[in-house]
UniProtKB/TrEMBL annotation, chains A, B:
Entry GO MF terms: DNA binding
Claim: Transcription regulation is one of the keywords in the record: yes
UniProt-listed SMART domains: HTH_LACI (SM00354)
Record-annotated HTH lacI-type domain positions: 5-59
Name the UniProt record assigns to this protein: LacI family DNA-binding transcriptional regulator
DNA sequence: AAATATTACGAAAACGGTTTCGTGTTGATA
DNA sequence: TATCAACACGAAACCGTTTTCGTAATATTT
């Protein structure tokens, strides 16, 4: 086992000072040709690499960014992480991933852990519990310390920071409009409680489209589940009772499960009933029939978030100006609707 | 913006030395009641938290572990990360995730970045390119430096370190056996090239089960794709030509896609043809029909890997003893086979 | 009262780098 | 030959902690 070599080791071996070694390795003008060559050769031979921690301490820059998300076993978050990772890596940053598991406490603990010097900035999406409690003090504390934060997808307007969202309202509006244009008459929505910012926006888009149509809104066609957890019984009862001819779901799983239910009843998709979901995940693509979805472009979102964060980290300026980037969703047409 | 407070700041304000502050905060016996109370009160008031980087430099312990995996948009890896994250977090460690994207070079670069002090140990699964080239020098260098490494799932025996795998051979064996017991006569295998250690093991299990049966092996019933990428045309041609009555696939996607193909031809699942896949992901559960799979227990694997790594990190002993943990897969029976 | 023990604190080194500033040596200039 | 600039390098501070060791000032013992 050969331990890592340090500047001090090189200095001792070559009988020069640590400063000389440091400068020689940076090709400083101050150091003579001879010495530089000697030092660099020695360093290469023993595979010298500067210690990141020491550099971090000196520069007060870690080149790490903290990503705090509710869940990782979820296609959307997964694609966002990939976007963040790719972009951050290209700019020399590493990504520390922490999971809040939808818990407020875990979110707080994770942020506190990372905020003590481990990272240069945060990218995060709020846990449902945080959104429910509407307690954002942990975020405010971090921003007050001057640590940049970018919120994505599940955001709040109570914290001043950069934000990246997709236009969920527009996505739902377009999807609902699609149903209306196809002559659907009983357009249902399966969503969750409004404290989840995304569900709230999607519900708004659904309402807007129907309000603009001659049909108007039938509240009984809206099913609000308490969380993103699949509640099979509730969906089954709802579909049986309401018998819609089109269903918009706030995620893939609600949609795919609903499709199975109506298929078992002998309905044909999309002739008798059509479906549109949110999130362009692996499920939608391989479902039978394949599911039309509002794609959220998670990878793009991750990239944009990472770019905003790193730009802020590396900007000298003390500008206190924050932006909110709104990404446009796209409807990915598949076999669960007529086309 | 109130910046973080340091020991030095507290010392200056309270007109004591830095050492005294440090000791007072640790409740050292050396410091008087009075002073301790004063210091602790002040620290609490200004929300003092020690700087992680400084502590890391001092202790030569970062409390970070590096996870290098080929891909994150992949249910199995995602569950492993979750297992790692949960366990590591409970023991006070953070997880730095790096993606190799199946590229040898990226794997090397990521490891080098992290190996310079950023982490206390690695958990990784090899990229396909690495397995193809069979070049493991980057791993050997790291272990030679005394940095502990745990390999999981996609491993190599050429590197001395701890390993965690599931018994892929056993999983495939059991699945194939199941088909045989159900009286299937043309049992096909859709797999990938043998350089992927998991595919190789699964193919071995398939062969073993058939060799033990009166049927024996029919090489033309084995389709070897070049990678895990879904090659629709190849699978279609294969299924049309061979017309099997049971198919074992090395992943979910091959299986789900194959099921669609045969359904379109009018075959009934599982009566005419049965399917078993690998990886208990979201696809299997919601596919139509739902897919029987060999579950790999990714989360468990992550947990076990993290435990092995952290135990090694924290063990004083310089033992050079490595273990390989073999997890047992389980067959999750769903509607793609008779039951 | 002298010797010793205890208390309560500070100085300084260490972790591994970067960077500013000072200085001895050399060669060129006046 | 005295003066000065250029060259090449080293000393030391600094980043924020922890920890060892030394030491005044008290308290206790003989």
């Amino acid at each position: 086992m050969k331990a890592k070599i340090t500047l001090k080791d090189i200095a001792r071996e070559l009988e020069v000072s640590i400063s000389t070694v440091s400068k020689a390795l940076k090709n400083s003008e101050e150091i003579s040709r001879d010495t530089k060559e000697k030092v660099q050769a020695f360093a290469k031979l023993y595979n010298y690499k500067p210690n990141n921690i020491a550099i971090s301490l000196k520069n007060k820059r870690t080149k790490n960014i903290g990503v705090v998300i509710p869940d990782i076993v979820h296609h959307f978050f997964t694609t966002v992480i990939r976007g963040i990772e790719k972009y951050a890596n290209a700019r020399g940053y590493n990504v520390i991933v922490c999971l809040s598991e939808e818990s407020f406490d875990k979110e707080v603990i994770n942020m506190e852990m990372l905020a003590n010097g481990s990272i240069d900035g945060f990218i995060m999406s709020l846990s449902s519990e945080t959104q429910e409690k509407a307690d954002y003090n942990h975020l405010k504390e971090v921003t007050e310390q001057g640590i940049p934060v970018v919120l994505f997808d599940r955001i709040t307007h109570e914290v001043e920071c950069d934000k990246v969202i997709i236009d969920d309202e527009l996505g739902a509006y377009q999807a609902t409009k699609k149903f209306i244009d196809q002559g659907k008459k009983k357009i249902a929505l399966i969503t969750t409680d409004d404290y989840l910012s995304v569900s709230e926006a999607r519900t708004r888009g659904y309402r807007k489209a129907l309000e603009e149509s001659p049909m108007g809104i039938d509240e009984s066609l809206i099913l609000k589940l308490p969380s993103m957890e699949l509640d099979e019984a509730a969906i089954k009862a709802f579909l049986n009772k309401m018998d819609p001819d089109a269903v918009l779901c706030v995620n893939e799983i609600f949609a795919v499960y609903s499709m199975r239910l109506v298929q078992e009843k002998g309905l044909r998709i999309p002739e008798d009933i059509s479906f549109i979901g949110f999130t362009d995940g692996v499920l939608s693509k391989y479902a039978n029939p394949s599911l039309t979805v509002v794609a959220q472009h998670g990878e793009k979102m991750g990239e944009v978030s990472a770019k905003m964060l790193i730009d802020k980290i590396e900007s000298e300026a003390e500008e206190e100006t924050y932006q909110t980037k709104i990404l446009e969703p796209t409807l990915v047409i598949r076999d669960s609707i007529a086309h």
